[in-house]
Design goal:
- The chain is α/β, with parallel strands linked by helices.
- The protein has 2 domains: 152 residues, 3-Layer(aba) Sandwich (Rossmann fold), CATH 3.40.50; 130 residues, Elongation Factor Tu (Ef-tu), domain 3 (Beta Barrel).
- The chain is 32% helix and 26% strand.
- Strand 9 and strand 10 form a beta hairpin.
- The longest helix is centred in the C-terminal third of the chain and has 19 residues.
- The chain starts with a strand and ends in a 12-residue tail after the last helix.
- 37% of the residues are buried.
Length: 319
């Protein structure tokens, strides 16, 4: 897959582009449907299936105090698009200049000038350009002038609307099952493994302290059955805590700690993926440390049972 950032040359040769535009945070089922459409259009018109996306998330520039937590890192987005079979990704740096660009200028500069779009697929409620002046109707009008067709995509599942907002809401509410259903796979957090206070090791359950990116959304506090992927790309069953460790601290920081069952090597300063398979319970303070350890025993046993239904393929993008 070709990835083009600002200032880098477009490498499409003489082929046109079938383009999808959006942030694609989480690459949920609606996003996957859109990607499937540009791939079909690309095959029909001998065009490159191309995604135009933005980094950072536009809300971090336009309304940083209201910006949503992110479902995936940029690397995860690119890996997911590659796994879906996208030919090319144009990553636009979202800054004040881009925020001020008119919708018509964006069409002429990027969609026509850089990519020579023949087809454009966007969500039916897509808005873009300065003051959100661009929409599907405007794109369609400009398409008549510039020679591209616009294809609005419905992004509704059988039970709820497919959207990154819906995934975030479900995660915050502790409804992991709904979040994973909209995503089409387990929600997966990526982070660096840092040093902790070794509490887990003292209890007989050493954990990897996974430090997510600063804008990463975390699921509701609690204990989860999970799967952890180590740098050698091997998956391990994991019991995962997202919480403040109330057994030991009155006002502790929120940490993501994963106990990888059967794993004993050093993971410090490596990057690890943690897939959340099921929410087991909320975090709680026990009457004694021994009661806490007994509950951890049960959490790990339950996590192992749930992990038996997990396969690496189930963590990849499905369409």
């Amino acid at each position: 897959m070709i990835v083009v950032h600002d200032g880098e040359p477009i490498q499409r040769g003489d082929r046109r582009s079938a383009v999808a535009i959006g942030v694609f945070d989480g690459l949920h089922c609606g996003h996957q449907k859109v990607v499937g459409e540009i791939e079909s259009l690309g095959r029909a018109h001998d065009a490159l299936a191309t995604v135009v996306t933005f980094d950072p998330h536009p809300a971090l520039i336009l309304a940083p105090d209201q910006a949503p937590g992110l479902l995936a890192t940029m690397d995860q987005r690119l890996e997911g698009l590659a796994a879906l079979g996208v030919d090319q990704v144009r990553v636009l740096t979202f800054n004040e200049d881009l925020a001020r660009e008119s919708a018509r200028s964006f069409i002429e500069r990027v969609l026509v000038g850089e990519l020579d779009a023949c087809d454009i697929v966007v969500g039916e409620d897509f808005r873009f350009g300065h003051d959100r002046q661009g929409d599907v109707a405007m794109l369609s009008h400009e398409g008549l002038l510039h020679g591209f067709s616009v294809h609005p995509a419905r992004i509704h599942g059988s039970d709820y609307r497919w959207s990154s907002t819906a995934v975030r809401r479900a995660l915050v509410d502790g409804d992991l099952a709904s979040a994973n259903d909209i995503l089409g796979r387990p929600f997966t957090l990526r982070g660096r493994v840092g040093h902790g206070d070794s509490r887990g090791g003292e209890l007989g359950y050493p954990t990897a302290n996974v430090v997510p990116s600063i804008h990463q959304l975390l699921p509701q506090l609690g204990i989860y059955a999970g799967a952890a992927r180590t740098p050698d790309q091997r998956w391990w069953p994991a019991a995962v805590s997202v919480g403040t460790r109330p057994q030991f601290y009155e006002d502790g920081a929120v940490l993501v700690e994963a106990h990888l069952v059967g794993f004993s090597d050093d993971l410090y300063e490596t990057t690890m993926d943690v897939a959340f398979l099921a929410r087991l319970r909320g975090e709680m303070k026990f009457a004694s440390v021994s009661e806490l350890v007994a509950q951890i025993d049960r959490d790990v046993e339950q996590s192992l049972e749930i992990y038996k239904k997990f396969s690496p393929q189930s963590s990849t993008l499905l369409r």
